[in-house]
Design brief:
With 1112 residues, the protein is mainly β. Helix 1 (2-16) packs across helix 12 (420-433).
Length: 1112
């Protein structure tokens, strides 16, 4: 019956979720410049195979983690200076191999006294539990048979003579839950090793897609009976361990923990815990309070996380001195596999998850970059390491010795248990038989699930937040079902080799040839720790080089999924021949420093030589910063609306594009004042600036009456030529498709004292959802006219709305677009615009841009505007442009254009060779505008979205295309038919933000910003001298939380300050130095001059706004 439930649960999950070739010899491999050589079992003597045999009692439908695989531990069990290996087999004999040197190993399992016990072994760790200087073996055990104490973990104490004795009960470590892996670390800084045991319940006991009350789970006594709650064990200093989970704040839970990392999230000297949880339960991030307790704080630390978190690792990938975090999921890179294995995500369930403490979860790997302030930004899409299929082990290490941490990921599941077509066939069999399935049935169903071995991944770190897939470049590898893995210097040559535990295949040993290939230098460090942590687990080492660059590593053994690396820290240092400073920080805070260290050596660091003890809460003396954050009482409220009810395949919401902001001196006191727009049902607000640098809110009844509108943009200008600043407010949003009157813009006239009244007939009827309004006396008649940019037609994305030219006639505005600028009637989905004499003919031209647009130029010819193709680079660089600013960036006497775009850290990518496309039409003739986003696969255009959601938009496809594989095998025309050729079509070839440098003769050169800027959309640009050196700088900010639920929201922006050199070059200043940090759903940033102070106001959607004081 449990297996039957599991089958039904698997079906529910889909609804929710939208023999090896002989390796070449070493010499041949080196000659071909391969970084790794696969060394055969015949050569090494490592003949271990994790044998998996499916039976009626042992298959996927009896135990969901049947295919989890086994682990590897690497360490020197006999202290001879060579790294030995231990492999776990899930249901067969584990193996211990003694390293004899030169990649020769001896199987000493039987002689060592390590018997095979019936049950299901999972992870393994080498750890010196009794601190006698010999590493012991700790084996984690789980499975589905809760009998005869089969779940009890095992501890084999090293007797010092290559034999071992099992003593888990004696040491208090015979945890009898369903353990996946155990991590040893010192969480209370008392210089002994404690243990975190990662457990996972049997999935057939509950529906893994159900959303529970997480607090109620903690209180429910039934939770612990599932034997899946994680456990924290405290070492009392004598080597005895006690379960302190609940008193430490590690509460009972029902998550499917597969891996645990420890990392000091907030740099306070106490190790915190991150638990990778499979399925929809959120990952846990336990912040160490420093008093023996932890507080779960995932939502404070990361903006989003993996849905099916599996393996993970910690390392500093950008050498900024802060440790970063990565988790792996199971989303395929291959288009066919992605469309046949992954399902549609329900919007309603996603919203319920985010509102129930499950955080924002997405099905891809996550690369969380440490901001250095206790927060992280996620950049996997820009790094191009987000999709590595069914991933298990993740290892960060500098494999090519260039000084940067690379990535290795093991891949492959024994059966594709989420293959959509196979599961449909299984369900059909169930219905056909119309009876309770037998054990034999379930074995048959399990074998109906397809098998596909996969290649493991290598990624070379490029040093710019991106990685190159070097899987085939670095090694000649064969597809496999690979699980646990470790790196270790097996031959003591200074580079890191790799060992992999495979299902039904020999274990893989990859010899690293980096030293033979003269790739770079290295430094290897081992420790003699304090009495109760003799190998110094938890010790952190930082290197400082002559050029000012840094590297950091921390010794934590449990890495590589179900696995453990050796007690050595390894640094690749590139071409460096010496290290200026080497700083060691022991777990209790003691430090020591070495200077002028030669490379290519093995150092041993002793705890007894540490003479200084640094405060664990040490903070450097605060340095003056360019920005000081002030308290901000200003907040935007924007009620949620489900745009996807109107168009299922929208790429993102358009109902939360505000608020608008405008700055001007509205009461003529010499101090700038502010208007901040409101969301639907929130009135806009006027704030009067005061000499003290504060603001006073003015209660204006008229804005309260107009709170039914949504204020998405605004500007102050003198509409009636009376010498004061009036206010134009743009209405927008996607929700008013049935009531377009709510899209009418408004004009408020100023009485000269900052009090406003609404005009009733000064504006024509305008029912486009807007984005921007900019004033200008382009016709030189002495009054200010307006350009209004239309953003979108509700329920008709991406059809171009009308943009409008409003001519001022004594304070009344008329729509003269058809007469003066007919090209504006369907120019595109405008987001921003600027008046700019681009052709230097002494009149103002208009440049507009937006989504699916280039930078369009409309030249002013005697007051009439016509779109021109003279500026080809501007026009042909199509993007999702959010913001433009005109300025002479390079001080050459002509104006350039700064342009904010989507960025690179997003699901969608585009180049000139492979643009990103959208097709739109009523393909099924049902009165609804259908959208198809398209990318390239094998040089053919294919849909971005999957079968289910595409058929939800166009139901006839459900019967036309019956299988997921059929859907995946078709291009756009094969899915839609010939009507795709008649559909409206836009494309994008550039998603990077950057500078359009004016090179003269109507030519512009696009120069993209560096990847530090590309990690988020840019929709806010300020050009100002922030550091007082008389050279203007660039401040850029932006995010967009409004993506559809299968597209990871763009929330990794933290703001960028680029300091200018006066000649067009800019250097980024870290937020820890500048003081500027803007990580919310940023919509705009404005400077405000209060007379005594200059302030910077960051405008955020549906959140409090942020206020900064400038030092210059």
């Amino acid at each position: 019956m449990k297996a039957f439930k599991n089958l039904l649960i698997l079906s529910a999950l889909f609804i929710f979720s939208c023999k090896k070739e002989k390796a070449p010899n070493i010499e041949e491999s080196v000659s071909k410049q391969k970084l790794f050589t696969s060394v055969s079992a015949k050569e090494t003597g490592v003949d271990f195979i994790n044998v998996l045999e499916e039976t009626i009692d042992a298959n996927y439908f009896q135990y969901n983690y049947m295919y989890i695989g086994g682990g590897v531990a690497s360490g020197d069990i006999n202290n001879d200076g060579l790294v030995d290996l231990f492999f776990t087999s899930n249901s067969n004999e584990n193996k211990l191999y003694l390293n004899k040197g030169d990649f020769k190993f001896e199987d000493i399992t039987k002689e060592a006294g390590i018997p095979h016990e019936k049950g299901f072994d999972t992870g393994v760790n080498f750890v010196d539990i009794n601190n006698d200087g010999f590493i012991d073996i700790y084996i984690s055990r789980g499975g589905w048979l809760d009998e005869a104490n089969k779940f009890a973990n095992q501890l084999f104490i090293n007797n010092g003579d290559l034999t071992f004795s099992e003593k888990a009960v004696e040491f208090g470590l015979a945890d009898a839950n369903r353990t996946i892996q155990t991590l040893f670390f010192d969480y209370d800084n008392d210089n002994d090793l404690d243990a975190y045991v990662t457990n996972a319940p049997d999935i057939i006991n509950r529906n893994q897609t159900e959303i529970f009350n997480l607090k109620e789970i903690q209180k429910n006594p039934e939770t612990l009976k599932l034997k899946g709650s994680d456990r924290l064990y405290n070492n009392d200093g004598t080597g005895h361990f006690t379960d302190v989970s609940i008193e430490a704040g590690i509460m009972p839970e029902m998550a499917f923990g597969l891996n645990t990392e420890v990392i000091d999230f907030n740099n306070d000297g106490w190790l915190d815990i991150y638990v990778n949880n499979d399925f929809n339960m959120p990952d846990f991030a336990f912040l160490n309070n420093g008093d023996g307790t932890f507080t779960e704080s995932a939502e404070k630390l990361v903006k989003h996380m993996s849905f099916n978190s599996m393996g993970g690792d910690v390392a500093d990938i950008n050498n900024d001195g802060f440790l970063d975090l990565m988790t792996v999921d199971m989303n395929p890179k291959d288009y066919i596999r992605s469309k046949t294995t992954m399902g549609m995500t329900s919007i309603s369930k996603f919203k319920k998850m985010t509102s129930s403490g499950y955080h924002y979860q997405y099905m891809h790997n996550m690369l969380q970059i440490n901001n250095g302030d206790g927060s992280f930004r996620e950049v996997s899409k820009m790094a191009d390491i987000g999709d590595t299929d069914w991933s298990w082990a993740l290892l960060f290490a500098d494999f090519d010795l260039d000084g940067l941490n690379d990535i290795f990921v093991t891949n492959g599941v024994f059966r594709d248990v989420i293959d959509r077509d196979s599961n449909k066939a299984i369900v059909a069999q169930l219905k056909k038989k119309n009876r309770k399935p037998t054990k034999e049935d379930f074995l048959t169903y399990a074998k109906m699930l397809p098998q596909q071995k996969l290649i493991n991944y290598f990624f070379k770190n490029n040093g710019d937040f991106t990685f190159e897939d070097t899987s085939s470049k670095w090694v000649d590898d064969s597809p496999s079902f690979s699980n646990g893995a470790v790196y270790a210097d097996l031959d003591n040559d200074g580079d890191l080799d790799i060992v992999i535990n495979n299902i039904n295949d020999n274990a893989t040993i990859l010899k690293n040839n980096a030293k033979e290939l003269d790739k770079g230098n290295y430094l290897q460090i081992s420790f003699v720790g304090p009495e109760n942590n003799v190998f110094g687990i938890g010790t952190k080492v930082s290197l400082l080089f002559e050029d000012g660059s840094t590297m950091v590593r921390q010794l934590i053994n449990a890495r590589g999924f179900l696995s453990a690396v050796s007690n050595k820290l390894h640094f690749g240092v590139g071409p460096a021949t010496s290290i200026k400073n080497l700083e060691i920080v022991w777990q209790d805070g003691k430090t020591q420093k070495l200077i002028n260290i030669k490379v290519n050596q093995k150092l041993q660091i002793k705890y007894e030589d540490a003479t200084k003890k640094r405060s664990l809460h040490f903070t450097a003396s605060p340095q003056p910063k360019l920005f000081e954050k002030l308290a901000s009482p200003y907040k935007h409220i924007d009620p949620s609306f489900n745009d996807y009810d109107l168009q299922v395949l929208l790429p993102h919401k358009l109902s939360q594009t505000g608020p608008g902001i405008a700055v001007a001196d509205i009461n003529n006191d010499g101090i700038e004042d502010v208007f901040i727009g409101g969301g639907r049902s929130q009135p806009g607000q006027i704030f009067i600036g005061e000499k003290s640098g504060t603001f006073k809110k003015i209660n204006n009844r008229i804005f309260n009456l107009d709170k039914i509108y949504e204020d998405v943009s605004a500007c102050f200008f003198d509409a009636d030529n009376d010498g004061d600043q009036d206010l134009y407010v743009v209405s927008g949003s996607y929700e008013f498709y049935r009531n377009p009157r709510m899209l009418q813009d408004r004009l408020y006239l100023n009485n000269g004292k900052g009090n406003f009244r609404k005009t009733k007939k000064s504006l024509p009827e305008m029912h486009s959802a807007g984005a921007v309004v900019i004033p200008s006396d382009f016709d030189n008649d002495g009054d200010l006219d307006l350009f209004f940019g239309g953003r979108v037609i509700p329920a008709n994305y991406p059809h171009a709305p009308k943009s409008t030219l409003l001519i001022n006639n004594n304070g009344n505005f008329s729509d003269q677009t058809e007469k003066l600028a007919p090209d504006l009637l369907n120019i595109g989905m405008v987001i921003d615009a600027k008046w700019f004499d681009i052709d230097n003919d002494k009149d103002l031209d208009l440049i507009v841009t937006g989504e699916w647009m280039g930078i369009e130029v409309l030249l002013n010819d005697s007051g009439k505007f016509k779109k021109t193709s003279r500026y080809k680079t501007l026009q042909n660089t199509k993007g999702w442009w959010n913001k433009i600013l005109v300025a002479d960036i390079d001080n050459d006497g002509d104006d350039d254009i700064i342009a904010g775009n989507l960025g690179l850290n997003y699901k969608f990518h585009a180049t000139d060779e492979k643009p990103f496309h959208v097709y739109f039409s009523d393909f099924d003739y049902n009165g609804t505008q259908d959208i198809l986003l398209a990318k390239y696969y094998n040089n053919k255009q294919v849909p971005v979205r999957g079968k289910e959601c595409t058929a939800q938009q166009m139901p006839h496809l459900q019967s036309k295309i019956k299988s997921y594989r059929d859907f995946a095998s078709r291009d756009l025309e094969g899915i839609i038919g010939p009507s795709i050729k008649r559909a409206s079509h836009y494309e994008v070839n550039e998603f990077r933000s950057g500078l359009f440098i004016n090179t003269g003769n109507d030519n512009y050169s696009f120069q993209p910003f560096g990847n530090q800027v590309q990690q988020s959309p840019i929709n806010s640009i300020v050009y100002y001298d922030f550091n007082g050196d008389n050279k203007k700088d660039l401040l850029l900010a932006g995010n967009n939380y409004q993506s559809e639920v299968e597209t990871t929201r763009a929330d990794s922006g933290i703001g960028n300050l680029l300091l200018g050199d006066g000649n067009g070059a800019y250097n980024s200043l870290n937020h820890l130095e500048s003081g500027f940090f803007a990580d919310k759903d940023v919509r705009d940033v404005v400077l405000i001059n209060t007379g005594s102070l200059r302030l910077l106001l960051v405008i955020n959607n549906n959140d409090s706004h942020d206020l900064f004081k400038l030092s210059h």
